[in-house]
Amino acid sequence: MTRSVQALAYARPSALESSAGGRALGLETSGGLTPTGVEAHPRFFAGFLSSPRVAARGLLAVADVAAARYYQRPSPGSLDPVVTGNGDRLRFESFSGCGGVYARLDVLREGLDGAETGHCTTNVDVNNPLREALSRMTGDDPLHLRVGPEGLAATTLGGRLVEKKVPLPDRWLRGFAEAQVVSAGFDLRAELTGAEAVRFLRGLPRSGGRGRAPLWVVPAGRTLRPTTRPGPGAVCLPGPERLATLERVLRDATALRVYGPAPDGAATASAWEVVLPGMRLTLTLSPDPARGFSGEGGVLEALATEEAAQDAELVAVLLAWEPRIDPAELAERSGLTGARVRAALTRLGTAGRVGYDVADAAYFHRELPYDADRAERHNPRLVAARALVAEGAVTLDGDLASVASGEQRYRIRESGGALSCTCQWWADYRGRRGPCKHALAVRMARRGGTTGGTR
Q1: pTM, whole model, 2 decimals?
Q2: Within 13 A of 4's CA, how many CA atoms are on the CB side?
Q3: Domains (ranges, CATH) in the chain?
C-alpha cells in the first residue's frame, strides 16, 4: 500500500477552557483553501452552539472513527478530522484507518445558534487532552466554538508550531471519492424514532468475524429486524460492530435513518444517520469490514475520459462552496447534459472537491487539505488500464474487443453500455466493484486512446 506522510501544523493545541460566560472550545486549524486563496491557519467560525454536550459527543464520534481500524490491527497515528464551512453549517468528516467507515457530523444552522460560517476546508486538531475534556462534558452550559486562530493575528503564529506527522495511505484518499459515489445511489429505506433507535442499536451483535455472511435488516413494524437474507426492502448491515460509535450520541437521538441501494443479493454499502438537535451524525459502512471503499471502482469510468476532465474544470468554477449542489441547475448553467455533470462531479470527488449528503440527497462543495490528486495517479486499475492502452494491447472489433495482458488475451463485450470481460475479476464481482482493468482499457481506447490493432 502506497503511503505518504501528512504534516499538520497548528498554531497551538485545540482546547476546551472555562470562561466567564460558560465554556470556550477553540479548534485550531492547519492549512486550508478559502475563497481568497490558501491560508496557513484559516479562521471561519466563531459563535455559540445550541446543544453543547451533543456537539461534543458528535465530534468525539468523528474522532473515534479517525482513530479506528475495524478490520486490521491498530497502528499508531490517525489523521485529524476535516471540517468544512459551507455558509450555513459546519461539516466534520473522518475516515477509519482501514478505509471501511466514513463518518460525518453536520452541525446545521440551528445547531450553530443561527450563526453564519465562512467558507473553507481544513484539518482541525483533536488531541487527547481535548478528547478527555469533551468526554467529561455533562451539562449544557453555554459553549462558544471558535474554528481557527483567536483574533485576526494570533501572537503564537510566529512562534513554534504544534506539528503532527501521520501516515496517509492512498487507499484512504480514494475512499473519500468512492464513498461519495456509492452514497449517491442510496435511498431512504427506513426511519426509527429515537427510542426505537436506542433499542435496535443496543441489541446488535458486538462482534463480526471474518468470513461471516453479511447481516441484513428489514422494517418490522416500528423497528428493524435483523435477518440473514436480503429480501425486499432489506438494507445490508455489514459488520454491525462498526456502528458502536453511534452510542456516544444515542441519549439525544430523535431519529435513526437508514439508507442503501435496492438489494440485489450481494452485500452492499449502507449509511446510518442519527438525527440530533440541530445536527446529524452519519456513518457510511463499506460492504464488508475487510473491504475498504478504495477498491469499489465507482469512479473509474469518470476518470477514464478526457471529456469528464474538461467538464470537471468547467463545473468546478460553478461550485462556489454551496452546501447543496443541484446537478440539474449545474447542467443548465454549464450547458452540459445531466450525465456529463454527474461524471464531472464524480471526477471532482476524486480530488476531494465534492462530497455527498444522503439526508439532503445532494452534493456539497469542499476542498480537502491534501494532495488528493494522488487518488487518481495511484489508482491501480486506472494506472494498469492506461498502460495497456499505451502498449497497444487493445484490439477493437465493433461491440467486441480483446486485450492482451501478460500471456493471456481477454475478450470484452459491450451490451447496453456495460462491458463484461472473461477475466477472473469479472467472474468474481460481475461489475459490482467497477470495471476490471481490461474493460477500462477498452473504454479508454474507444474514447480516443491509442490501440495497436483497432479494426
Answers
A1: 0.89
A2: 14
A3: 3-168 (3.10.150), 178-295 (3.10.150), 380-446 (no CATH)
